[in-house]
Amino acid sequence: MNLESFWVVSWVNSIGFLSGLPEWCYAAISLLCIFFFVLIPSLVFIVFFDRKLSADLQARVGPNRAGPAGVLQPIADLLKLLQKDTRSPWGWIESLWISIHSMVLYSSLAVIPLGSLALLLDTEMSAFLPFWSALVLALGTILLGLSQGTVAGWFGGIRVAAQALSGAFPALISLLCTGVRAGGFRWTVLAGSQGFAPWSWTVASNPFQAIAFLVFVMSGLVLLGIAPLEGGQSMSDIHGGVATHLSGRRLVLFRFGRFYGFFCWSVISVVLFLGAWNLPLQFRELLVRAELYPLIGFFELVCLLMKTFCLMMVIVWIARVNPRSRVDQITDFTWKVLSPFSLSALVGAGIWAGWRAFL
């Protein structure tokens, strides 16, 4: 049995049913577990935090009626949106957007790193696959704007394309910086080059990696159109851009896609720069000696998600206290600031790695 299916097989055997299935069934089970037990609860948590933070910053009462302390407000929002579906038929371009959107959402789940025992795919191209998925997700958003046949939709799609192209270059260069330090782009190699302590993380290894981390996070926000760098969708002259005429199930899918991109990019940032899922060495060795491999996978997932949520909450907080920028300001900032900094970080990281090799 390979490592990719070990964690699912261990979980299935521990609860005593569905044993003896082929490995593709275990892979399908793992994708369903990630979707229902990781992605959806993460969405509920971030939406609730966003609502509460917005209420506190605006000196008003936050959600407090749907469940204890308003914890069920995201579910109430979902049910409300599902009741507001439009009757307009789907066009072929909009159907193509749905196909691309769904393909990215469900296929890229297999390449998201969630622990050393929860890697469905670990190759030298692993770190690049979610990057290309983000580009495909941006393409689907562009097609959504073009499918509406309105000025807001067309200009929104063009602005999303401009942002995605400008954000892709510095993000890719920053990704290369981590590979220079780790010596490869496998998730296990990138995570193994770091430790549990913050001073062993990639971001703290040298100043150039710290620059690469900041550039990578901001470039991802530009690429995916995440607040506060969402000028292609939030400007008043296009009234929401590609999301102007969305409602009901279409709006749910669009918002879920944006959250998925935000979550995926945050997880990748944590794995590349913030210590990944690494546990304290003595604690992990204790679990290994006891052969408690499911517990290792669980604690690694908790460690990774805690870092991911902290990063996402910081970004949400910054988005709520800063005004939105225009799309031309965002693209200028990306090409004139983020791109030079990413190239400088790559050169510096290469020199630093070479200097360390000769010591």
Question: Could you characterize what this model shows?
Answer:
- With 359 residues, the chain is mainly α.
- It has one domain.
- Helix content is 69%, strand content 0%.
- It has helices at 3-15, 23-57, 73-82, 92-107, 129-147, 151-182, 187-192, 207-224, 231-234, 248-273, 281-289, 293-321, 327-357.
- Helix 3 crosses helix 10, helix 4 (92-107) runs antiparallel to helix 5 (129-147) and helix 8 runs antiparallel to helix 10 (248-273).
- It is globular.
- The two termini are 41 Å apart.
- 40% of the residues are buried.
- Mean pLDDT is 80; it is low at 1-5.
Q: Summary?
A:
It contains 13 helices and no strands.
**Overall spatial form:** globular
Number of strands: 0
Order of helices and strands: HHHHHHHHHHHHH
Structural class: mainly alpha
List keywords for this structure.
359 residues, mainly alpha, 69% helix, globular
Topology:
Layout (H helix, E strand, L loop, with lengths): L2 H13 L7 H35 L15 H10 L9 H16 L21 H19 L3 H32 L4 H6 L14 H18 L6 H4 L13 H26 L7 H9 L3 H29 L5 H31 L2
